[in-house]
Every structure is written in structure tokens, then in C-alpha cells.
Amino acid sequence: DLWRVNVEQDNSPPAPPVLDRATFSSDGQSVNIYFDTHTNLGGQSYEFFLCSMIFEFIGASTSSCLWVDERSVRVTSIEGYASNLTITGEEEQYLGSTVTLLPQIITAACPLNANYSCAENEFTEVKTVAIEAPEFPIAPVMALSAPGMVGGCADIAMDLSGSYGSGGRKWKRIEWNVLKNNKLMPSNETGVVEALYNASLSLSTNDMFIIRNKYLTPGSTYKFEVTIENFLGVTSLLPKTITVSMNFGVPEVTIAGSSVMFVKRNQKIQLNVDATMQACAGEETQLAARREV
Fold first, then answer.
1. pLDDT by residue, tens only, the chain of 293 residues
2. Which residues pair with 50 in a beta bridge?
3. 3-state helix, strand, coil in the chain (%, to 5)
4. Which of 122, 135, 127 is nearest to 32 (CA)?
5. Residue 286: which residues within 8 A CB-CB, separation 6 or more?
6. Is residue 171 within 8 Å of 235, Cβ to Cβ?
């Protein structure tokens, strides 16, 4: 038997695209919005435009959007504005942000050889999606600058300002663990822990973490462990041991930046060293420098 098959050309317009998902980039600095098929770019071109023209989300009017291709848009904050977008977390204050597509803007892409009228393309339905965490989020990179020894009359000052990986936001968590002479801090010595706790409430590493000398015991060694978590839920931990000398005339020497450097063999290594002496050490105390490699 013979079968006759007629192939007829489909002159109907394609189904409208669907807002598929939104995810943070690995460093948390941008959000990528995806559609399930090719779009008309919402009447835009491959140039930056204000996100509030197509989408609705926290900070859309101060965010810049760019079509990467006909299916995806990249969202970044306009310079001078911080992003408040978050992912879903266990705590109530970290409920996830959402992206909503505005109505009557997005349609299917119109190919050059279309055999139908692109004016008949239907608009994409309004839809809201939660912003998801990236598949491979970055971890915070911590840099703690502090002397390994301080004089018996000196404060302890620790600088974490060189740390990065917060995604342009405040840190989600900064926590300290302290040991004194390899033991838990005595219950009647709360000043050290309270000082670090209070300094961490701002969730920022831009300011110094200072422990006043009145809370310290000369001749003791303090082991600090600081844990930092970014808004993507990734944590890093860094230890630091500082001894409080019985001697008042001890210079405080710190090397700025991270304790680990990655350089190529043909690159120079530059270290910025800061040395200070507390006034209580006496006026006759002098500093001398010596470099060794």
C-alpha cells in the first residue's frame, strides 16, 4: 500500500518565552536571569538599560541590565548603589529575593525568515521566580593583619580590612573563638570576648577589632579563630596567635595583607611592614629594621 504524506508549513507564531530562573553569579556580584527560549529582548538592544523597564525586584531602579544573548540577562548594581538581593536562608531575615517579569514586554524572537507576522506574537505571561544560589559560590578570602606579640601595656588590634568575597554586601556572620594559654577563657574574664563580639555587630571588616589592654594578662598567649560567612552561605576560618609580653618595650610589627601570597617566579614580592611602639614603653626605646630573605 502507498501512503501519501502532506507536509504543510506552519504559519502560526511560536509560543511566548517563559521566565525560567534567576541565579547569582559565583562571586555574588551579579544576577543572571534566564528565559526558556529566544526573546525579542523586550525592545532593548545589546546595551545597558535600567532593569525596572522589564523586571521588578528590590533595587531594580538602581540596577543595570544587559542582554547576554536572546535568552539571558545579567543584572548588576549601578555604581554607588549597593545590592540588597539575597538568597533564601534558614533565618527569617535571609528570606530569598525574587524577580518578577513585567507584563506586555517580552515576546518570542522574530527570525529574519519568519513566514508569519511577528506582530501576532503573544506576550510572555507575568511570572515571579526566586533568586537561587550559584552552583559554585566563592568562599571569603580572609586577610588578618596583627602583631604576633604586643607589649605588656599595649592593646591588641587586628585588621581584617583586606578580606574580600562578601559579594558587595555586609558579611552574613562574623564569629570569634578565643583560647587563653590553650584553655577556654576563664568565666570571670569576659572582656576579650565581649570586645570582639561588639566589634562584629556591624558585620563589617572595615574597622579594626581592638581589645583594650585592661582585659589582657601579661605573659599570656591568646589564640584567636575568626569565622566569616558571606551571604551565599560559604564560610572561611582564619587563626591568629598573639602573645602579651611581660616586657613593656616590645615593638608591634605587622605585615599588611594576607598571610599567603601567590606569585609567579618572575614577579617581585613586596611586603608592607608597619612597626610601632606604645608610649608606655618609655621615651628611650628606639626601633631598628633588618630585612632578611
1. 566 665 555 677 889 999 999 999 999 999 999 999 999 999 999 999 999 999 999 899 999 999 999 999 999 998 877 777 777 554 444 447 899 999 999 999 988 877 788 888 999 999 999 999 899 999 999 999 999 999 998 999 999 999 999 988 899 999 999 999 999 999 999 999 999 999 999 999 999 999 999 999 999 999 999 999 998 889 999 999 999 999 876 666 666 656 565 667 777 776 666 666 666 666 545 555 555 55
2. 64
3. 10, 30, 60
4. 135
5. none
6. no
CB within 8 Å of 223: residues ≥ 6 apart: 178, 179, 180, 182, 239, 240, 241
Please give the Cα distance from 133 to 232 (Å, whole number): 7
Helices and strands counted in the chain (H then E): 1, 17
- Inter-residue contact 229 to 202 (CB < 8 Å): no
The three-class DSSP label of residue 214 is helix
Residue with C-alpha cell 541565579?
A: 23
Q: How many whole angstroms from its chain centre is CA 186? A: 35
Which residue pairs, CB below 8 angstroms and at least 24 apart, start in 49-53?
Answer: 51/75, 53/102, 53/105
Please give the model's pTM, rounded to 2 decimal places.
0.74
The whole-angstrom separation of Cα 106 and Cα 96 is 25
- Cell 571569603 maps to which residue? 140
In the chain, at which residue ranges do the beta strands (DSSP E only) sit? 19-24, 31-35, 49-50, 55-56, 63-69, 72-77, 98-101, 128-132, 149-150, 156-158, 173-180, 183-184, 209-211, 221-229, 235-244, 252-255, 273-276
Report phi then psi at 29, rounded to 5.
Answer: -85, -15
- Residue 14 is which amino acid? P
What one-character-per-residue DSSP string does 37-87 give?
Answer: S-B-GGG--SS-EEGGGTEESTTGGGEEEEEEETTEEEEEEPTT-------
- Report the chain's terminal Cα–Cα distance, integer Å: 91
